[in-house]
Amino acid sequence: MPMPEPAGARRSPLLWVPTGYFTMALGYTMLCSVTAIMFKNLGMDNGRAAAYSSMLILAYTIKPLFAPIVEMYRTKKFFVLCAQLLIGLGFAGAGLAMGLPDYMTVMLPLFWLMSFIGATQDIASDGVYVTSLDSRAQSLYCGVQSLSWNIGPIVASGFLVYLSGRLHADVFHHDPRVFGPAWMDAWRVIFFIVAGITLAMALWHTRFMPEGARAAHTPADMKGAGRILRDAFVTFFQKPGVWKMVAFAFLFRLSIGFLEKIGPFFMVDAAARGGLGLSNEQLGIVYGTYGLAAVLVGSLLGGWFVARRGLQRTLFLLCCAVNIPNLTFLVMSMVLPSSLLAITAGVVIEKFFFGFGSVGFMIYLMQELAPGPYATTHYAFGTGLMGLCGMVTGVLSGHLQEMMGYVPYFVFVMVATIPSFLACWFAPFHHGDGGAAEPSAPPPAALAAGTGRD
Questions:
Q1: pLDDT tens for residues 344-379?
Q2: What gap in Å lies between CA 371 and CA 236, rounded to an integer?
Q3: What CATH number is given to the structural domain containing 164?
Q4: Which PROSITE patterns does this UniProt record tie to the protein (predicted)?
Q5: Which residues contact 59 (CB under 8 A, 6 or more apart)?
Q6: How far apart are CA 201 and CA 20, in angstroms?
Q7: Which of 17, 173, 220, 375 sits between 20 and 30 A of 148, alpha carbons compared?
Q8: How far apart are alpha carbons 185 and 426 in whole angstroms?
Q9: Residues with Cβ < 8 Å from 149, sequence gap 6 or more?
Q10: What angle (nearest 5°) sits at the alpha carbon of residue 41, between those of residues 295 and 400?
Q11: For the chain, which ranges sit under pLDDT 50?
Q12: Is residue 1 part of a domain?
């Protein structure tokens, strides 16, 4: 149970839960998704743009390894504020670095460092949520937490990508159809905007975010942290059917990993290169607004569907929902529709069913992989495997697409769904059919933060 704070220090969770999770999502989406669009705008080929952006996922994948260190020193709020301050300064620094002759040699290491700071912010913010709220409050504000996280990608991938296009064409008067260094003017402004938002959130949280209590069994030193982490690894691999669960965690979203970076590239590439030739403004509306809204609606309906039918009975259907609608990108690459309505419909269909089916992945981790004495850490291992899959597929995706072209590549994406189906079919169940997790598992709200990110 969290330690109570003095009465005068208590603040309504509505003052810090929405802003805390929105800030986390904004930084993560800017680093791991929006940078790919920026690299593409600056004239990078698909291989490098996808690889550079995907490698920034590493820090979020391995964050369970340094999570005990965050528990050991100062307060969780201290780490949140420091992380938000440094991330804000980092985005401002990236904007300034774009004025240098060899700006990529500065910007890429800066983004790499910011990804580790962002992962630390995630750990500390989740810690504030779990230790400052009792179980009832965690459940009460779980929906607010998830919704706030999902607003972050809509702002970053939707509004800010849209704004970059408007700035490029209307303010700086550059040709939006030409990729190259001229795009630096618009993206510099975007980075300054993100820096301002992040620093403003840090200032807000200085006043309204609680300190966060120390968790039970917090390690006192590095030796203790290493012992706990080692024991968590050992007990993880002692679970029955663990390798089938590992295969499930890594492979369930394999085809999505190959599609995630290439989908937006396909949207903005010129028709001569096999793309749809959308502008950044259109991409922000179609992919970053309607598409992400479809993910959110699909996630809500997917959760309702699993709650009514049970996970074991629905898991394979959810796997179909994630993988089969990828066919829409293959169809669009063959037809090359010019109607924005048709393109939007294709994206919304794929994103809706992705959100609907991905719920099964998260619930499986909660109910089958996580239960035990280190439930939160084991859940983090599962999401880490998912992140590792996203990083590996993202690094490879751009190079494969350039070798194949868009139509053969989207055929390859459909072939990549086969391992997902096999991993899902053989996924073991040891804790009932969609029932509640064992008492040793973390409260649902503590895990829900993972449903919208990584």
A1: 999 999 999 998 988 888 888 878 887 777 776 787
A2: 10
A3: 1.20.1250.20
A4: MFS
A5: 112, 115, 116, 118, 119
A6: 8
A7: 375
A8: 51
A9: 21, 22, 24, 25, 449, 452, 453
A10: 70
A11: 1-9, 434-452, 454
A12: no
